[in-house]
Design goal:
CATH superfamily: Peptide deformylase
Oligomer: single chain
CATH class: Alpha Beta
Distance between the termini: 30 Å
Radius of gyration: 16 Å
Number of helices: 5
Shape: globular
CATH topology: Peptide Deformylase
Length: 191
């Protein structure tokens, strides 16, 4: 287990559609080691999630985990460690919500984009067990962000460029308003 370097925007691996893992690959030492490294890297960088291509591996593996009091995203509701292999998302309805996002692979930049309010997520866990869950609100946005990575899409591709801000400028001019909206969203639809 180790913390890996997070590749940055401009690296071609971030623009590749990641390949699905075959069932016999899931239990391999390589895949299990990658999962452990993703967990360590996510925790060390305080992201809300991380996808395998963000550490240079173009396979369909991503994790989401938000601990209480995450210093990067203190307004996000907690999400227990979720390891997703070959995830598939299905929007539940047409309703969207504006979310201001950042990304470990796009350092010091944030922007606002529309995400589906609710999604159904199907995936295999690290033991190869199938899961199907419904995720809502900010948590749905986090799952969409990570699956976008696996499809070679970055949040900057979806965001309104007029909303781009450095973290410093976000904190100064946008954070208070966004946190009010995010808190209201969590209160209305849950995580």
């Amino acid at each position: 287990m180790s913390v890996r370097e997070v590749v940055q925007i401009g690296d071609p691996v971030l623009r590749e559609a990641s390949r699905e893992l075959q069932p016999d690959e899931i239990g391999s030492p390589e895949t299990q080691g990658l999962i452990d490294d993703l967990i360590d890297t996510r925790r060390a960088t305080h992201g809300a999630g991380i996808a395998a291509n963000q550490v240079g591996e173009a396979v369909r593996v991503a994790i989401v985990e938000v601990e209480e009091g995450n210093p990067r995203y203190p307004y996000k509701p907690p999400v227990p460690l979720t390891v997703m292999i070959n995830p598939v998302l299905e929007p539940l309805g047409d309703e969207t919500v504006e979310i201001n996002e950042g990304c470990l692979s796009v350092p010091d930049l944030r922007g606002s984009l529309e995400r589906h309010l609710a999604v159904r997520v199907r995936y295999l866990d690290r033991g190869g067990v199938e899961h199907e869950e419904v995720r809502r609100g900010l948590t749905a946005g986090t799952f969409q962000h990570e699956v976008d990575h696996l499809n070679g899409t970055l949040f900057v591709d979806r965001a309104d460029p007029r909303t781009f801000a450095t973290w410093e400028q976000f904190d100064r001019h946008q954070r208070e308003q966004f946190v009010r909206r995010a808190t209201r969203l969590v209160d209305e639809v849950g995580s």
